[in-house]
Task: inverse folding
């Protein structure tokens, strides 16, 4: 039996997800500001600390326009946190790569985000894995 989109539990879950997202973004913006970054700059730097990416791929991952990413990368590059390099697989494409300082800032930024880490730490490993799998399922991704 399909669940109505307006049943009380569904409405409560939607509200709770909204509250979690709002709190996460608020803390993320505060943490970014402590490193003299905007939230968008911090998100790009965090993404690049995982792997170097071309501007178009960054935009796809963050669901925004590539022209916005170019400006963000320009400002990160001016601060010495990111540099552009030719893509080893296609020299016509430039990838954004964090510098050593950029990786260090991204690491300190991640370490300063307590909101998600502290409540998740109160869940068991099984509960965290279940939550992860349920969130992936909501996003249409295959669970681990």
Result:
């Amino acid at each position: 039996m399909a669940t109505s989109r307006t049943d009380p539990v569904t409405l409560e879950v939607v509200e709770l997800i909204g509250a979690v997202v709002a709190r996460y973004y608020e803390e993320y913006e505060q943490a970014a500001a402590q490193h003299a970054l905007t939230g968008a700059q911090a998100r790009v730097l965090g993404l690049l600390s995982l792997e170097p990416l071309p501007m178009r791929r960054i935009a796809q991952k963050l669901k925004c326009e590539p022209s916005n990413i170019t400006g963000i990368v320009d400002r990160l590059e001016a601060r010495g946190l990111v540099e552009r390099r030719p893509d080893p697989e296609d020299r016509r494409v430039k990838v954004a790569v964090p510098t050593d300082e950029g990786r260090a800032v991204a690491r300190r930024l991640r370490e300063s985000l307590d909101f998600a880490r502290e409540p998740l730490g109160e869940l068991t490993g099984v509960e965290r894995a279940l939550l992860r799998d349920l969130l992936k399922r909501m996003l249409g991704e295959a669970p681990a």
In short: Residues 13-111 form a domain with the Arc Repressor Mutant, subunit A fold (CATH 1.10.10.10). Strands lie at 53-54, 82-87, 90-98.
